[in-house]
Specification:
The protein is of the alpha/beta class. The chain contains 9 helices and 20 strands. It has an 8-stranded mixed beta sheet. A 6-stranded mixed beta sheet has the order 8-3-2-12-19-18, with helices on one face. Strand 18 and strand 19 form a beta hairpin. The longest helix has 25 residues. The N and C termini lie far apart (74 Å).
């Protein structure tokens, strides 16, 4: 350790949902930590991404005393009856009772903004603009994280900097195994300046899947199934709205489109989720089909498991939870991946048969009928 090194117990790389949740849980466990985020506060508080938490995620935040992070966001609970439009006909989802209680529709930027406020209010050390992060000595009992002209020595490093972050690339080649599944189609994702009412509407149509999901009181994101080789240039604004009209079976309110991108649907899991004193969590360790709306919920699950594991070793000298961190998280990840693949196939194959054929369409339609209320007699 150089004379200029700072010292803490945990360095968390990444200030998204996974990193901020972990930092909050550690702080509330009395464990010192530093959260490093390469972007500015303004950037991360406005970054538009996933928009829902499952019941377990909401309950978890409340149990840690930070239920306020999902309150007052304007999205509403996720147990309200929302429509599914099948070939232009409005159907209702079956509303099975979740033993964990109701989830919540909450834009990611709102959850991040709330977690930042809570973490800083509680005295957390959160550093924005932490660029050029380098992870060192991960296979020793005193790893080090360098950024810009600073260095922090610690006992543990948490890699929560997303799929394109530096944490996973710090693991030696050949140690991690990447498992992936490509669905064979993509979503044209468009951020619009039009509120969603209701907060989430999805459609199954012979032209492909479509959805509009709330991203706050004045914005929504539109999703349209498309071929993986489509480009943004193939989707001028008028085509986006025309296609949404067609797949919803009625005209929708139109407005400005701020951004568009083509997102191939896939699932990715890296195993194991731990190397030496580095633990990966959230998107740094796995990606899940956006159809599942499970990304933020998985991030919270990883954060809680890791927080309890680190607390076990720091407070009790018990390394067993940390040693089992990867296995515990991966068991949950694979369970959710299985559900995500099933749901993604059901929602997409039951519409456009050109991707996987009429047989798979009819199978998917049968599965879809198990998810919605029966048609009125």
């Amino acid at each position: 350790m150089s004379r200029t090194d700072e010292q803490t117990t945990v360095v968390v790389v990444g200030g998204g949902v996974a990193g901020l949740a972990l930092g909050t849980f550690l702080l509330r466990s009395g464990i010192p930590c530093v959260v490093l985020e390469k972007h500015s506060r303004e950037y991360v508080e406005q970054r538009q991404r996933a928009g829902s938490l499952d019941g377990r995620g909401v309950r978890m935040l409340r149990e840690w005393g930070v239920g306020e992070a999902v309150e007052g966001h304007g999205g509403g609970p996720s147990d309200v009856v929302l429509p599914l439009i099948v070939d232009g006909e409005r159907r209702a989802w079956r509303m099975d009772v979740d033993e964990d209680g109701a989830g919540a529709f909450i834009p990611q930027q709102v959850l991040v903004r709330n977690l930042i406020r809570i973490f800083l209010r509680d005295g957390g050390d959160l550093r924005f603009g932490a660029e050029d992060v380098v992870l060192e000595r991960l296979d020793t009992d005193q790893p080090r994280v360098r950024y810009r002209d600073k260095a922090i020595s610690c006992e543990f490093v948490a890699g929560a900097d997303g799929f394109q972050g530096v944490s996973r690339t710090a693991v030696p080649d050949g140690f991690l195994t990447c498992h992936s599944h490509e669905f064979g189609y993509a979503w044209l994702s468009a951020m619009t300046g039009v509120p969603a009412d209701p907060v989430a509407v999805m459609a199954v149509h012979s032209r492909g899947f479509a959805a509009r999901i709330t991203r706050g009181p004045e914005a929504s994101r539109v999703y349209l199934q498309c071929p993986v080789d489509d480009t943004v240039g193939d989707w001028p604004d008028d085509r986006v709205w025309d296609e949404l009209d067609a797949r919803f079976g009625s005209a929708v309110v139109r407005g400005p489109i701020a951004t568009k991108q083509v997102v191939p649907l896939r699932g990715v899991v890296f195993s194991p989720m731990r190397y030496g004193r580095l633990c990966l969590l959230g998107d740094a360790a796995h990606l899940i089909s956006p159809m599942s709306a499970e990304g933020m919920s998985l991030a919270l699950h990883d954060a809680e498991v890791l927080a309890r594991a680190i607390a076990g070793e720091v407070e009790k000298g018990d390394p067993s939870l940390l040693e089992g961190y990867s296995d515990a998280c991966l068991a949950h990840v694979w369970e959710r991946q299985a559900s995500a693949v099933w749901m993604t196939d059901a929602m997409h194959d039951s519409g456009d048969a050109s991707y996987r054929g009429e047989f798979r369409k009819q199978v998917a339609r049968a599965n879809l009928e198990n998810l919605v209320e029966p048609k009125p007699a």
